[in-house]
Design goal:
By secondary structure, the protein is of the alpha/beta class. It has two domains: 2-93; 118-314, 3-Layer(aba) Sandwich (Rossmann fold). It is built from ten helices and nine strands. The strands form two sheets. A six-stranded parallel sheet has the order 6-5-4-7-8-9, sandwiched between helices. Helix 1 (12-28) crosses helix 2 (84-93), helix 1 (12-28) runs parallel beside helix 7 (207-214) and helix 5 runs parallel beside helix 10 (300-314). The protein is globular and about 55 Å long.
Amino acid sequence: MDKWIFENRLSPGDIVLLTAAVRDLHRTYPGRFITDVRTSCPDLWSNNPHLTPLDPSDPGVRTLSCQYPLIHRSNREPYHFIHGFISHMNQELGLAIRPTEFKGDVHLSEEEQARPSPVQQRLGDPTPYWLIAAGGKYDYTLKWWHRRRWQEVVDQLEGRVQFVQVGEPGHYHPPLRGVLDWRGKTSLRELILLVYHAEGILCPVTLLMHLAAAVPLPPGRSRLRGCVVVAGGREPAHWEQYPGHQFHQTIGQLDCCAAGGCWKSRTVALGDGSELDRPEALCVDVTPSGLARCMDLISSAEIAASVLRFCTASSSKIP
């Protein structure tokens, strides 16, 4: 059996897609590989049945730095992010791995699944809720939507949807009114448990949308977990969107994203020495409010309507 350690130190959202590649490697070649990982997010691999501890100093163990160069063809070829790591593994290892599911591969233990939701533990009743991430990383400001618009969505759905605001410390996540504030209060594993029990997710293109698809559904639930994504024109929808997600994008509506995602990073140079400050990485159409034009085109009313459609379909309303 071939022994491989797969490495990647990118953001958690990327690692969710690597979990899919490892799963599909084993499904395509059952019994042929023993695998382990070295990534930035060990919590995404808890309870994963495809991992076996391997020693990198063992001469029989090989290591692959996993990448997804397929992203550079995403504007012209019909592939999803889930193909990215798989394509690279196939090329580097001479394989023909096939995607087997349209989602990442996150596992919960029986004990984790049996726990009441973190929100139920706090409130004392099983109130349905949606998670909301109203911000993003400072190095990718082009993905930001204005905090006032996130607040408008919350206000428009007051009494119909209970939002729980989450966000990683050190990123930009301005506080919202009328939500349960769990910003900076969860580990990645705790966030996964919040997703497990959530009726839906509202976010920009970020980790949460990948978790919305990858985290299994609770027993007895057949309807897909709702997810509404404020995406704009940075990334082509077919590269990011999962089944059932509402992906609000503006590809084809502006000159800067007329034929595909612009893949820019920032609306303004930050002076932090990053290559993301290069002119070719900066948005070319920024509104006076500081938003990328593609994000400015998306209204709070259309986002609220998308969330409400999910809630109406699943009868998920606050009593």
